[in-house]
Amino acid sequence: MFRKIHFRLADKRFLSELNEAFGPIWNWCLAKCRLVMIRYPRPVFTVMVLSIGLSLMVLAGDIFGGKDKVVRSKGAPMASGMDIGAAGFYQGLESISSTASKIRQNMELNQRVDSLLKKQQLTHQDSLWLSKALKAMER
Length: 139
What we know:
Layout: H1 9-39, H2 41-64, H3 84-118, H4 124-138
């Protein structure tokens, strides 16, 4: 049912480099936070409770607040008789569709680059294609 997540060697190296670079800073920050929490438990608890209360007030204001607010999306054409929610829904579908097509293009590009990297020697045409793909990715 569950698959074990396998990291590539490059990912492991990247994470170890990040840990090596920022580990001391992270440990110092954690030690300072721990020290503040031990020295001043009541103010820390008060700040925590106040922030939770504030977030609940904002949430309640959004839920029970003004129902008469009309939110119009920018650039969405309104057809006659079309509900505002439906226009937002179709705009969301267009956004999802464009994102899916971009993901598909990136996956195809990734597969092509992987196949080129597995070759022992690149041809001139392969080099030109890689250069063109890198320039397209910079935009």
